[in-house]
Amino acid sequence: MIKRDELLRGTITRAADDEPVFVLRAQDVHAPDLVRAWAHYALNTGLPRDKFQSALALADEMEQWHTRKSPD
Predict the structure, then answer these.
(1) Cβ count within 10 A of residue 59
(2) How far is CA 4 from CA 30, 39, 45, 48, 70, in A?
(3) Can you tell me the distance from the alpha carbon of 52 to that of 43, in angstroms, rounded to the nearest whole number?
(4) pLDDT score at 13
(5) In DSSP terms, which residues pair with 28 in a beta bridge?
(6) Confidence of residue 18 (pLDDT cuts 50, 70, 90)
């Protein structure tokens, strides 16, 4: 999900104001692999198949992002 959409209606909007969250950006060279790993773990613990596929598609989009670098 792109930033604009996430801020308007994504998972982040359902987090409690004081809930810790972790954000991976497409520019992070590790992000696609981490998203794929999360998707597989989550699938094995009940993640719906459509959300699994969506996470894999997002990882593919991240790999195509024009700016890739080591984490900040």
Answers:
(1) 20
(2) 22, 22, 29, 24, 23
(3) 6
(4) 85
(5) 69
(6) very high
pTM equals 0.85
What are the tokens at 20?
A: 């810790």
Please answer whether residues 10 and 16 qualify as being in contact, where contact means their C-beta atoms are separated by less than 8 angstroms. Answer: no
Residue 57's identity, in one-letter code, is A
Residue type present at position 45:
T
Cα–Cα distance, 72 to 70 (Å, whole number): 7
Q: pLDDT digits over 42-68, tens only?
A: 999 999 999 999 999 999 999 999 998
How many other C-beta atoms can be found within 10 angstroms of the C-beta atom of residue 24? Answer: 16
**Which residue has 């890739």 as its token pair?**
68
H helices of the chain, where?
A: 3-9, 31-44, 49-64
Residue whose structure tokens are 């992000």: 31
